[in-house]
Specification:
2 copies of one chain form a homodimer.
Chain A lengths: L1 E4 L6 H7 L1 H12 L14 H4 L4 H16 L2 E5 L6 H10 L9 E5 L5 H12 L3 E6 L6 H18 L7 E5 L5 H9 L2 E4 L13 H9 L4 H14 L9 H14 L4 E6 L5 H15 L7 E6 L8 H6 L4 E10 L24 H18 L4 E8 L2 H21 L10 H12 L5
Parallel strand pairs in A: 2-3, 2-4, 4-5, 5-6, 7-8, 7-9, 9-10
Antiparallel strand pairs in A: 1-10
Chain lengths: 426, 426
Amino acid sequence: MINIEYKYDPTINEKIDLLKKRISENHSKITNKNGLGSEFLGWLDLPKYYKDSSEFNEIIKAGDQIKKDSQVLVVIGIGGSYLGAKAGYEMFKNPFKTNGVEVIFAGHQLSSKYLNNLTEYLMTKDFSINVISKSGTTTEPAISFRILKNLLEEKYKDKAYQRIYATTDEKKGALHNLSIENKYKTFVVPDNIGGRFSVLTAVGLLPLYVGGININDVLDGALEALNDFSTDDVYKNPAYYYAVIRYLLYKSGKKVEILANYEPEMAYFSEWWKQLFGESEGKDLQGLFVSSVNFTTDLHSMGQYIQEGERILFETVIKVKDHSSDLLIPKVENDIDELNYLAGKKLSYINNTALEATLIAHEDGQVPNIKINLDEISHKSFGYLVYFFELSCAMSAYLLNVNPFNQPGVEAYKKKMFNLLGKKGY
Amino acid sequence: MINIEYKYDPTINEKIDLLKKRISENHSKITNKNGLGSEFLGWLDLPKYYKDSSEFNEIIKAGDQIKKDSQVLVVIGIGGSYLGAKAGYEMFKNPFKTNGVEVIFAGHQLSSKYLNNLTEYLMTKDFSINVISKSGTTTEPAISFRILKNLLEEKYKDKAYQRIYATTDEKKGALHNLSIENKYKTFVVPDNIGGRFSVLTAVGLLPLYVGGININDVLDGALEALNDFSTDDVYKNPAYYYAVIRYLLYKSGKKVEILANYEPEMAYFSEWWKQLFGESEGKDLQGLFVSSVNFTTDLHSMGQYIQEGERILFETVIKVKDHSSDLLIPKVENDIDELNYLAGKKLSYINNTALEATLIAHEDGQVPNIKINLDEISHKSFGYLVYFFELSCAMSAYLLNVNPFNQPGVEAYKKKMFNLLGKKGY
């Protein structure tokens, strides 16, 4: 499904060889679940069994109910409770037309304009809510849920509870308790899977299924990835190969990794990727600063800097080989715009040529690149890519000697905010 | 309309004082138009006269015609021919409902999926095209224009030309020539204003006007900014104050500037800002790498890195004081989600408290911040902010001794692409 190319440094294998022992050790920490934060490795084997779980069936059942009775599903969540589903939904939706149920995200910021506009929009729609929060007390989703739950109850009275799906802790917490009390249908945020690794659980799968994605295929893709990346031989394991190259680039002094895609529908996938790596590695005053660009769009904004700014960057580029949707450049009689030399060519060919040209130009500008060749954009390859990056991230963080699965720094602003807002105990 | 706060470094004034002479010199280069790239300073005085120009009237006339005969305006452009209008349009639109004409952007990438979906969508709509390109031969917009022009001609036959508005070079170039030949209504991309500084010309104003923005107010805001920022006294000129602080942070070793907004509708404004600073300063192997975050959303993705990753960052935060749209947190009987301590509070108050808390938390983590206090989000303040950043950018680039107005590095990938595609002469 994917392979990795890295041509910038002809001596790379020698450098990788020096790390082989550490890679093997880290591989063993991951698979034997005895490294830092190993209590959060629940995502590792999940593709092996999740499709056969009763919860998977419940997701399908709930999703079918939502497809039957709702025009809109409002997904309330933030961070890992939002980015994975958003990434997948955006990758496959038609940007100009909703087919089936429209999935709208909320509770991922504190914008009054957004929430007012959304409330007004929902007045005229049949809708359900999937509220996703381990605790139920995270400020942003809790506020949105209070307000949208009110709206739902005004609209559907004593049947409102049937339109609320809560994805939360299995046994405790505010949202869990509220769900029991009000008979909401519930799904589980597992204890052993952190937010940014949770897209292949109910957290991501229910919104994706409602949004028209074949979640069987998604999990099949993840399982294929699991099998493809089971060896500790870095040269046969693209997930580890990617991890070790970016580690070596970091150690050689690069400070910023830019994830570049050439397919605009992947913009939110890059946001998901940024959380995955930024939150897993950005600790102990180290880690690559992760950023993303959508090319060719951003060649006309960030391209100048990448070509000629400070040499602190490298790029990771996702190249998609086959495109299900394509079109041909038409020929016109008078060639004023000078495009006839491209007449009859596929647009995807031109896009991929722009990609290759950019790699050469940026390499000339001393920007190394890692190319991830992906066969196609499909529900299956989405699952595959998710698992690929999750496993890479675990290896990469272990190479840095940090815990890939915690996020101690995220609490800092929350504590300060509760203090300023006057919450009890802060 | 705005003021700047910078509290991180108590000795900052001493450092600024050492640069006073250079700031004055640069101010004189800007206002006397005799510095590097000064042939591109046309944007500097534009707010003084543009509203009285015949072109401004023509924009209103054309815009009114489009409002009369079109449901959709497709704006075809890339880079500076796209980002300014997109930034403004996104800032004021309702994300869930189009009021008036829907503005859709195209020609800003090479996605076949996007173009196919767009074509299908336009079949059922009355639409016009505003194609924006100085030359008319830039690959991305030229391809989209070929394809969408075909569609327009199939739909409106010999009246199609009346629905094409070309914003291009006044006297020469492929799009200019095509416009003459086909009697398209034309607007001017001035010779003395580069793409990323062009939003207050027809390039940005026609799409903005059609999208429902009061462009009189936008230009009034820019004129107010022009007057507010006319002094070379850095302590009385927020545009220069911002420029010099970010310059000093860069010289102290910071590599990345993050622009943080707390209003999701400003996400594309940050993209515009990234082009402005990245393309103006990222040359001669120097310049800050510019990045953006949308808070509080991204506190749950990039927040960890900002708090505890490598200390190469500083933040520039836009704080909006007054919100026209607001709502109150409702009280609920059983306080399971623990939000009742916020009941009756405005959502904007909570958002701004999150902002202040985050500044404190990040400062504790050794991330300096520059706070830009903005009175409100309005058409006027959009124009004001645009001019503020444009002038800051000129000063900032002059402090780095680079030409703020060229982009030599953008040609590198284009040349290579034409070569790979087999274009004559490459």
